[in-house]
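Work Package 3 (structural annotation) set out to generate three-dimensional models for the target panel prioritized at the project kickoff. During this period the team completed the workflow that converts sequence records into discrete structure tokens, so that structures can be stored uniformly alongside our sequence database. As a representative example, we reproduce one entry of 324 residues exactly as it appears in the project archive.
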Amino acid sequence: MTGSEKDINAATARQQLRQLDLLFEWARLPQWLVMLAACTVTVLIWQHTSRPLVLSWLGVVCLLTLLRIRVARCYQRSPAEQRLRPRWAALFYLGNAVSGLSMGLVHVLLVPVDTFALQSGAYAVTTGVILCVSIIYAHRFSAFLSFALPSWLPPTLFLLWQDDPTSPYWGLMGITLFSCMLLAAAFINRSARHSQQSDIHNEALLYRLDEARQQAEALNLQLTGEIQHRRQAEQQLRHSHEALEHRVAQRTAELQQIQARLSMALEASALGLWDYGTGICAPMKFTIPICRRSSGCRTPASPCRADSGPGFIRMMWNVCATRW
């Protein structure tokens, strides 16, 4: 699975969770509408139907309203990973189907089929609530069907099978309204699905852009660190170069001082002239004036001859040591 597919799957899961959140959030209003319709129908048919049956039906609707509100609260308090479990969707669709069936039973069990005035009032109330709730759930077609089918199909079939002159027409009206409502819900659901797919792709794109931004920030931080490290290395190299130049200058000054001292030693030593032999590998000879200290005479004596250079070097070292 590629990265883009993972992003799309993650965005799809988030969209499904968001839709389920909206269904549970909007489930309170439809259930309160069902409760209001139940109270209104109870008042309308109180004098014309068995009261225990009406009270039992009203009690079931009240209990269903409390249970659905309780389930919605528990769902909203649950963490996101638990809300994605299938049991929450199953509880919602089950409560939706029971609510729709409670509206459909008004036509089957409670309203007498031989009283047109009572039928018109009760059918108007229940039909208005069913239409309103169905449109609320139209953005999610499964939620729409889970409420519309139990609320429309049983009473429509029941009224079509009656032998009185008015009930089949009520059934035909129910089929017409259900067909129109089904078509409208299909178009609403189609638009909602296209919008959902666009949101999924946009969210996946935003997620990839955010990942790219994070990677760019990480690369910038790494590049900044490398630049700082390179600057530190250049600074260390510059310090080493400066230290080396200082050492070279210091060593040059020391060598110049040593050379100056050697020159002074040579000048002060009153050495004689150098003389080289004419033959190949002839020994080098030099002349040093020697004073006779015993007689105080300053006349130079006979020159001394050295057979080789090392003797002269040792003699020069002794002279320099004596002078300095």
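The chain has a mean pLDDT of 79.
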